[in-house]
Amino acid sequence: MRNFGGHAFVDKGHMTLCDFTGYAPLMPPIIEFFQKGTPPAPEAETIDSYAFMGAAQESRVKKSMPVNVADIVKKAERQRAKVKI
Fold it and tell me: What is the superkingdom listed in this entry's lineage (predicted)?
């Protein structure tokens, strides 16, 4: 199986992210979520994770230019404010 990893650039430099080797460790909390309805992570952590992935994608589109995760969160909040449910 191919390992995946990455780098995150932060205020004090950059950090190496751990290798990703598969989804198997995630299955027990996912199953419990569907059985009990309790999320395995707090909402803020989930939002941060999606913002990080969004920043990574935007950095890719911008040819590896740095992207501020906080800016991605603000952009998502503005978009969410426009949605009427």
Answer: Bacteria
